[in-house]
Every structure is written in structure tokens, then in C-alpha cells.
Write a structure and sequence with these properties.
This protein is mainly alpha-helical. It has helices spanning 6-28, 37-40, 47-84.
């Protein structure tokens, strides 16, 4: 296979950065579980927490999805670049 081309190195770095970004974004997001208290009718949600959920959580979910799509695309291009010897 010889030396790695510049394209393969750049794509590998981008792929690794996207993978780390996805993990970090996933870990920062809050879970949807509220425990058994939600079954009993206990709710500690305030207006602030509901509004915060719509803004910050939605942005985190959107960025996670964007990074996942980019990661998949870059991984496919990297696979093709390695196999075709670009």
C-alpha cells in the first residue's frame, strides 16, 4: 500500500475528531428517564426547566445528529479512499 496519502491522513483526523465529538455530545445530554416518580404523578418540572429542555437539549440533539451523519459520510469516503488508493 505504501505511504498514506494526504487525503487519507486528513480524513482519518476528521473521522477521529467527529467520533470524539459524538461521544462528548452524547454524554452531555440528559437522559429522558425521570424514574418512577413520573408514574406516580410527581413532577418537579418548572417553566424554566421545560424551556431549557427545548433550547439546549434540542440543540445538542441536532448537533449530535449532524455529527453522526458527517461521521458516517467521512468514514465511507475514507474507506473508498483506502481501497481505491486515492
Amino acid at each position: 500500500m505504501g505511504e498514506l496519502s494526504g487525503l487519507i491522513i486528513i480524513l482519518s483526523v476528521i473521522d477521529a475528531v467527529l467520533a470524539i465529538t459524538i461521544v462528548v455530545l452524547f454524554l452531555v445530554q440528559e437522559g429522558n428517564d425521570r424514574g418512577m416518580g413520573i408514574v406516580a404523578g410527581a413532577s418537579s418540572d418548572s417553566y424554566f426547566s421545560k424551556a431549557k429542555g427545548r433550547s439546549l437539549e434540542e440543540r445538542l440533539k441536532r448537533w449530535t445528529a449532524i455529527c453522526a451523519i458527517l461521521f458516517a459520510t467521512v468514514s465511507i469516503v475514507l474507506y473508498l479512499a483506502i481501497n481505491r488508493g486515492w
